[in-house]
Amino acid sequence: MIGRGRYNGRGMDPQLLRPFIISHVIALLYVMAAWRWPRGTRYVTGACFVFAGAFNTWWATTSPAIYVAAYGPHAIPLYRTFIYGAFARHTAEFVIAIAAGQIAVGVLAFAPLPWRRLSYVGAIVFLLAITPLGIGAAAPSELIFAAGVALLFRERRASSSHAR
Questions:
Q1: Which of 29, 53, 97, 150 is deepest in the core (most CB within 10 A)?
Q2: Distance between alpha carbon 58 and the CA centroid of its chain, in Å?
């Protein structure tokens, strides 16, 4: 199980500290990139969501119990109840459905503008939805990433102003 060992249960599990810091640094870099290079950041976002969806599909079919073990202990009580309940009984099905959404968000990031905006909305909703998973999902870095995705909505204006 993730984060188990000599940890005494007070404060942050030391095994999660390094990934926590790294995820937040990456999130801040993502926001800066989204501000400066929205088009390139959009492609990175799309590729990351497609990769995450593919990875989650594979992982859900090979080791579905890892999701319960990794996210259950760190989630807020409402999410924890769901994770240890229905989600634990049907992990692969839930994760594959989530992965399909991730892949759709990723693919739409490469689509023309009306569809691309749907990708941004989907990415923000996804990031907000996983934040209550807590430190197991590197929360609250998802909020920083969501802010970066929101900056991508300005891509068209930024691109058209350079074209003039």
A1: 53
A2: 17
Residue type, 36: R
Q: What residues contact residue 49 under an 8 Å CB cut-off, 6+ apart?
A: 102, 103, 105, 106, 109, 119, 123
| Token pair of 35 as six digits | 């501000």
**pLDDT tens profile 96-127:** 999 999 999 999 999 998 899 999 999 999 99
75 within 8 A of 83, measured Cβ to Cβ: yes
CB contact at 8 A, 105 and 49: yes
Three-class DSSP category at 5 = coil
pLDDT at 155: 67
Cα 104 to Cα 46: distance, rounded to the nearest angstrom: 9
Q: CA–CA distance from 128 to each of 9, 10, 11, 63, 143 (Å)?
A: 26, 26, 23, 25, 7
Contact 108, 116 (CB under 8 A): yes
CA distances to 115, 132, 159 from 79, in Å: 30, 7, 40
Considering the entire predicted model, what is its pTM? Answer: 0.84
